[in-house]
C-alpha cells in the first residue's frame, strides 16, 4: 500500500478549485471534482504517477464523493442523483478489461502467467528480433497493438510502428505503398478483420506482387469470442489469390521460422496461426528459412495418410497412433507440396486432410484439386470446420464438436474405411 501522505504533493489538480478529494482505500488512487473547461468533471488520478486514470465529464453540483471499502467502485451525488462510477478496475486498465471472462468484481481480474508462450508472443518476439536485423522492416496494426503482440516492438522501434486505427483497408494499402518504396511491411492482423481488406489485398498487394507479410492471428476457432471473431475462412480466401504464399505453422518454433522465411521473400506472404498457445515446442533463437512449398513426413504408417495443416498436426499425430497411419505436416497451403501429395497417394489407399478452416475451398480442397489435376483416383476424407457459423464456447469442446479432436479424427477415419 502506498502512503498517501508522502504522495499528496505529487498529485496535482487542474486548478485550486478541486473539491471532494478522496483517497482509495489502498492509497493508490485519488478522486476529485475538477473544473474541465466548461463544466466540472470527476477525475481519478494515479497517486504514484500523478496522471489521470479516468474522467467522467459534466458533473453538476457534486457532493458526497466516496470509495467502496474494496476500492472497486466510486459513488457520489450529481445534481441530486446518486451516481455509481462504472468500474474503477476497468478504468485503471482498459486493455485488461477489453474482453473479459468470469471474475470476482471485488478483486478484479488477476492476470495469470501462461504456462507456455502464445503464438501472439512468438510473433511479437520475432518481430523485435527481425527489426533489429533489418532496418527496412516496419510494423503495421489496425488498432490491435496489444492483441497482436506489438507492444514491445512499438516501444523499441517507435519510428517503424504504425497504428492506423480500425481501418484494415488502409492498413493493407499503406503497407503496399511502403513496399513500393523498398520497405518490408509486416501487417499484424486478426483473420476475421483481414476479411474487411480483401479488395486491398488483391488490388494493392497481390496484383503488384509486393513483399507484404500478413501475420494472421486468431486463425481458426477463437472460443469465447464466437462467430464474429472466428478465423474460419482465411485459408479458403487466401489460396485462390495469385502470387500469395500461405503458411500454417504447427508449433511455436515453426511459426518463428515461417515468419523469417516469409520476411525473406519478395512476394506477398501470409503466416496464419491460431489463438492461444501451441504444443509447447521451444522457439529457437536462430532463424532458418524453410524450403518453400515443402512439407515433411512426421510419422510412417500403413494404408492411411493424414495430411495435417497447421494447428491440427498434434491431434493428427495422436490419432495416427491408434490408426497406424502416416502423418504429414504439410506446412504450406500454397504452394502445395504436390510431389509429396502424389507420393502419399501412391503409397496409401486413403488420404485424410485435417485443417482448422472451413472444408469448402480450404486446404483439403487444394489437395483434392491436385489429385484431380493428375488424374489420381483415390479414396479421400476432408476434415475441417463445418459449413455453418459456430457460436462461442470452450475451444477444446468446440474442436471436439467439429470432429477435430483425436477421438473425432479416429472415428471419422474408421467410418470412412468401413464404407
Quick summary of this structure?
This protein has 419 residues and is of the alpha/beta class. It has helices at 4-7, 88-92, 119-133, 151-156, 168-180, 191-194, 198-206, 234-239, 252-264, 313-323, 338-347, 363-373, 395-401, 406-418; strands at residues 19-23, 29-35, 40-46, 52-59, 62-67, 74-78, 81-84, 137-141, 161-163, 184-190, 213-217, 245-247, 269-272, 296-299, 304-308, 326-329, 332-334, 350-358, 379-385. The protein has a seven-stranded mixed β-sheet, sandwiched between helices.
Strand order of the largest sheet: 9-8-10-11-13-12-17
- Count all strands and give the number: 19
Strand percentage = 15-25%
- Rg of Cα set: 26 Å
Through-space gap between termini = 69 Å
- In helices, the fraction of residues equals 25-40%
What overall geometry do the principal axes of the alpha carbons give?
globular
Could you give a short account of the major beta sheet?
7 strands, mixed
Q: Which runs of at least 5 residues are low in confidence (pLDDT < 50)?
A: 1-17
Structural class: alpha/beta
What is the arithmetic mean of pLDDT? 87
Count of discrete alpha- or pi-helical segments spanning 4 or more residues: 14
Description of the molecule:
This protein is of the alpha/beta class. The chain contains 14 helices and 19 strands. The chain has helices spanning 4-7, 88-92, 119-133, 151-156, 168-180, 191-194, 198-206, 234-239, 252-264, 313-323, 338-347, 363-373, 395-401, 406-418, and strands spanning 19-23, 29-35, 40-46, 52-59, 62-67, 74-78, 81-84, 137-141, 161-163, 184-190, 213-217, 245-247, 269-272, 296-299, 304-308, 326-329, 332-334, 350-358, 379-385. The strands form 4 sheets. Strands 9-8-10-11-13-12-17 form a 7-stranded mixed beta sheet, sandwiched between helices. The chain has a 5-stranded mixed beta sheet with strand order 14-16-15-18-19, with helices on both faces. Strands 1-2-3-4 form a 4-stranded antiparallel beta sheet. Helix 3 packs parallel to helix 9 (252-264). It is globular and about 80 Å long. The N and C termini lie far apart (69 Å). Residues 1-17 have low confidence and may be disordered.
